[in-house]
Every structure is written in C-alpha cells, then in structure tokens.
Design brief:
Pathway: Cell wall biogenesis; peptidoglycan biosynthesis
Shape: elongated
Keywords: Cell shape, Cell wall biogenesis/degradation, Peptidoglycan synthesis, Signal, Transferase
Family: Belongs to the YkuD family.
CATH class of the largest domain: Mainly Beta
Number of helices: 10
Organism: Hydrocarboniphaga effusa AP103
Distance between the termini: 60 Å
CATH topology of the largest domain: L,D-transpeptidase catalytic domain-like
Protein name: L,D-TPase catalytic domain-containing protein
Order of helices and strands: HHHHHEEEEEEEEEHEEEHEEHHEEHEEEE
Length: 391
C-alpha cells in the first residue's frame, strides 16, 4: 500500500508500480508528447499541472484509453484512494499496465544520433525509406536512405499479434520475424472498421518463409478502429498496428516504392563505422563470387556454395553438374549486380543479399531480382546455401 498526500509529489498506484520516471517533454500537440509531459509533471511534483494536461488530452483525444486510465488513477491518488493496481484480474487493466511500461521504456530504444541498425549493412538506392519494427518493445522506426546513409525520421508506438512474434502457422496469432516489402495500400473504404485509416500489406510469406513451410497470409501494417487511439501491445491476429495518424503519416514514405520492412525480434544499434566494416567485408565476398562466375572460373565459383545448397529443385550435386555443363559451352560470360542490399536476417544466423542480376553470354541474356542466403559452415566460412529469384 502506498501512502499518498496531495500536497506532496503524487505517486499514483499505477505510476509507482510501473516505476515511471519520464522526463517532461516540451509541450507538443501530438497525444504521445502530451502524455509524456503529464507523467513528467507528476515526477516533478506538480500533480495539478499533470491533471490539467491529462484533462486536456482526454478531451482532445477521448479515445486515448491509456491517458484516460492514468487520469483516473491520478484522480484516485488525489482523493487518497488506493487506485488501480497491476494485480487486477481485469485483462484490459493488465494491458494498460503493459502499454504504459512499454511507453516508459521506449526512449531507451530510440537510437542516438550516429547509431544505425547493425542488421542493415547496405540498402540499395532503389529504397529511399526503410521500416524497422522492434517487436519486443512495440516500436516502429522509419529511416530515410540517402546515399547509403540511414537517418531516423519517425519513431512511434506499435502493437503486434496476441501471442507475440515468431509466426509459423496460419492462426497462431503471432507476428512474423523477417524481412518483407510493402506491396501497396488498402484504403479505409475497402476495409472493415477494425483496420481504421487503412493498411499497408506485406509480402508474407516471403521466399524464406515458404522455404521453411510457414503458412498464413494477410500480414499488414494497419490502423485501429476510431473508438480507440491505439490497440494494446498484443492484440492483433499477427499484424502490426498503430494509431491512425501514425499510419497516415507513414504511408507517403513507403507504399509506392516497395519499401523494406524488417520485423525484428532483437535490435542492436551500433556506430556507422562498425556497420561499414561488416558491409565492406561482405561486399568483397559477393564481388568475389561474381568475378569467379564472370571469369568462367567454374570451380572457383562453385566453391562459394555449401553442401546443403538448394535452388529451383536442384541440390548442390545437380547444380554443380548443371553449371559445369552450361559454362563449358560459353565463349564469354558477363555478370553485373545492381540494386544490392545486404542484411543480417532477423531471427536467423544468416546473411541475405538481395540484388538485380544482369547476365549476358554469347547465346543468352537475362535480368532477374535475386535473393541469396549465406551462412557460416563449421570452419567459420561463409557459404551460399540458398538462391531464389523473387516473384
């Protein structure tokens, strides 16, 4: 039980148990900043100002249920009552505590200036924007890609599947972990009210998911019903949800350019120089593979493939026989790579190289978008174990 006095800094039951210690942000019009400012006023011992801010927020954004929850708890504290405690049997109250905890921690997971995601070694210029969703911490980050440099331009709260992340099967109510692309936009008038302002569909299951025989469909980034500002952290059937204003703000950056969306089970932020070192090392591997192929060094080219390699119904043995036979009949081979992106694939001990392969020989030419999967063997050598053409 917490002793409370209105003349002292008020600590409502909810705020004490959550351990909230947010710094008051500058007054801003958006609901997120207003909520943070109110909590900052409570921590600074100005409960009257906090009540004023929360009163304003609940009037201007009456569907912001977490704000209503904290406002009610603060009023209870003012009257000397126990307030709402996290041991409540009400599942909605438990969701409020979880949402408040995640919001309190989010400032720790926004990268400081100069830090970039360790998992993105190189992003092709064809993708001017990149979305990374930090699933465990309910945070969506939008990066601008300018000349190969990533810059964070938006970051906000988001929700995920009821059973968390790590989707494997249809109906498991989990959000997938992986690298996807936005495939378009579904407008408000095309969808039930559940989706709010609209939806950005993703290409789940992607090539890697299908290779692993993962099932399910309809994984989207979407809004929420107008009756609420946001949904609980775990409340969807597997989609990533966010406030309608955040979705509308995100849409112009990503819907028309097939922007990559990384749904991550773990994120690490590192200095740009560290990523540059890893990027250059892996670029040299991919370039060495390309040169051996273009130089008709068939055995050197084949040495980049691991024993478990598969592609298009072929294993390493049949692939090796095919390449030896084809390359032997060529007078020349020209191989060029364009739009190259390199990633540490989330949730897997592997690298993904995605690029456009432009191939030309004396009797054949082609151009295709390709994904190439690399992982280390027992000796610590990086080998290709899967190649596929994108649909």
């Amino acid at each position: 039980m917490f002793k409370r006095c209105w003349m002292r800094p008020v600590r409502s039951a909810a705020l004490v148990v959550l351990g909230l210690a947010m710094t008051a942000a500058s007054t801003a019009a958006d609901p997120e900043s207003s909520l943070v400012s109110a909590i900052g006023e409570i921590q600074a011992g100005r409960p009257g100002r906090a009540l004023q801010l929360l009163s304003q927020l609940t009037q201007t954004q009456p569907n912001f249920h977490l704000a209503q929850f904290l406002y009610g708890d603060l009023l209870a504290a003012r009257s000397g009552k126990r307030g709402i405690m996290p041991d409540s049997e009400d599942p909605r109250v438990r969701e409020f505590f979880e949402e408040a905890r995640l919001r309190n921690e989010q400032s720790r997971f926004v990268p400081a200036p100069g830090l970039v995601p360790a998992g993105v070694l190189k992003l092709a210029d064809e993708y001017p924007y990149l979305v990374i969703v930090d699933l465990p911490h309910s945070r969506l980050n939008l990066f601008q890609n300018k000349g190969g440099e990533l810059k964070l331009i938006r970051s906000h709260y988001s929700g995920m599947g009821r059973n968390g992340f790590g989707k494997k099967a249809s109906g498991d109510l989990r959000t997938p972990v992986g690298i996807y692309h936005v495939t378009g936009w579904k407008s408000d008038n095309e969808l039930p009210e559940l989706y709010g302002a609209g939806a950005l569909p993703l290409n789940y299951p992607n090539l890697w998911d299908r290779f692993q025989v993962k099932t399910g469909y309809g994984i989207w980034l979407h809004g929420v019903p107008r009756t609420t500002y946001v949904r609980a952290p775990r409340s969807s059937e597997g989609c990533v949800t966010m406030a309608n204003d955040d979705l509308v703000g995100l849409k112009p950056y990503v819907y028309s350019n097939k922007a990559p969306v990384i749904l991550a089970d773990k994120l690490e932020w590192v200095p740009k120089g560290e990523v540059a070192h890893d990027r250059d090392a892996f670029l040299s591997r991919v370039e060495a593979w390309r040169k051996r192929w273009a130089g008709k060094d068939t055995e050197g080219y084949l040495s980049f493939y691991g024993p478990e390699f598969t592609t298009g119904g072929m294993n390493l043995k049949s692939f090796t026989e095919h390449k030896r036979r084809v390359n032997a009949g060529k007078k020349f081979i020209d191989v060029k790579l364009a739009d190259l992106s390199l990633y540490h694939y989330p949730g897997e001990a592997m690298m993904l190289a995605e690029f456009t392969l432009n191939y030309r020989s004396d009797n054949f030419s082609s151009s295709a978008k390709k994904q190439q999967y690399w992982r280390k063997n027992a000796k610590g050598e990086w080998k290709i174990f899967r190649e596929e053409n994108l649909d």
